[in-house]
Every structure is written in C-alpha cells, then in structure tokens.
Amino acid sequence: MTQNPDLVLAERHGAVLLLTLNRPDRLNAWNLDLEERYFALLDEAEADEEVRAVVVTGAGRGFCAGADMEDLAQVGNPDPEMIARMRRRPRERPLAFRKPLIAAINGPVAGLGLVQALYCDLRFTTPVAKFTTAFVRRGLVGEYGIAWLLPRLVGQSRALDLLLSGRVVLGAEALAVGLADRVLPGEELVPAALEYAADLAENCSPRSMAVVKQQVFQAMDSDLPTAIAVANKLMDESFRHGDAVEGVESYLERRVPRFAPLGAG
What we know:
Largest sheet: 6 strands, mixed
InterPro entries: ClpP/crotonase-like_dom_sf (IPR029045), Enoyl-CoA_hydra/iso (IPR001753), Enoyl-CoA_hydra_C (IPR014748)
Radius of gyration: 19 Å
Mean pLDDT: 91
Strand content: 5-15%
Shape: globular
Pfam family, one: ECH_1
Organism: Catenulispora yoronensis
Protein name: Enoyl-CoA hydratase-related protein
Family: Belongs to the enoyl-CoA hydratase/isomerase family.
C-alpha cells in the first residue's frame, strides 16, 4: 500500500529527526495509515546513520487523541484486510527503536496515543496538556502493554488509579507522578525537546545509548545480581570499542567527540 506522506511529517534538524503526527482535524487520532507511515519513518531513521535521535510531536492542538473512533466502530466486525495490516508489524515497534525517541506532548494524549507516548524514552509536555488512559470509559481494557509499562513508570497504585478511572491528568500532575519528564510552556516545548535531542546526538555515543536502552528494559525483569553481571560483560565490550577511546580523548582534548554512527542491529 502506498503511504500518505502527509499523515506524519518528517523534518531534519541536523542529526535530529522531528516527526509530526499530522491529522490535526482529528487531534491526530491513530489509524492504520498513520501507524504505517510513522513506523516506516522510524525504520528509515534507524537505518540512517546521520540520524542520531528522534522527536515526535503532534500537529495543531493535540498529540494523539487515541484510536480513531471510526476504526473503533469496526472492532466488532473487522474486515480481513484490516486484520492483515494490523498484524504486519507489532504496535510496540517504538520500544525496539535503538536510538533516543522523545515525545513532545503538545496537547491531549489518550488511549492508544498515550501508549505510544509511553513507548518513547522521554516525555516533554506542557502545563495544559491532558493525559488519560480512557480505555474503561470506552468499554475497553489496558492495551498494548500499558498494564506492564505504566506501573513501572508511576507505581502500582497510581497506575491502577489512572487505568481504573480513566480520569484526565494535566501536565503538572503528569510530571509529579512520573508520566512526564519535563513541563514547559507550549512555545518552548518542541524547541526544548529538539535541543535535548541535539545534545544527545552531538555528545553521546550512539552505540552506548542503544546498549543502555537495552540494559534498562532487560533489567526491569531481572534481579540485581543478574543486572550487575550483564553490566560487567557489556562494560568489558565497551572498553574494546573505539567509542571508549574517543570518549576519553575528546574529554582530555576538550572537543566534541566524534563517535561512530550506530551500525545495523
């Protein structure tokens, strides 16, 4: 199927790629066409050695209002083509993205849109952005791993509060409970996310960042001795990699490091 490039806009800012979900008339509601375009752009960004970090935001006044209601209306009787497209690749694809992925949440984020935001490594937002799980208010349940992710971010009781009530949380509370990592005025949101991503792109080893992301997710389901053993092995490998030499030399010479691009995974 030919993708519609207008559904997700791509804009380069040096080594940072800005992706903008672009269905502003629908608060960027998630549908299969948008999903396929977004995931394809992530694939391209991962393969592009010049892209070292990605920021994702929403066009207009919202980030992503969740699954498009027109798609939800077909849930009880989905056509075979829709089922085939949904199975084409896992919806949790962003979790496997090896480069930093930062969400700049500029407005309402709900349901599946919130899940996609949680799949990002960091979430920047505004004081007035609205967060909601929404599922129980649509007769649904926590989907696509949110019941696994959310307690690890905010704790069990807070996760149950957000999932059971489907209540709206604004940016300040999102920061306080751990849903968000930065709260900024709306006009500063995307620039701040791009600036943060640019710092990672310029000063941090792509290989090290990819390994650290893998470490964090693996450690979430392991005990401390296992995590330490894995870290020791990975550290030995790091010492044998050229980035370790470059990291020390660039520090001693007080210059920007010239780390190698991330190779194929």
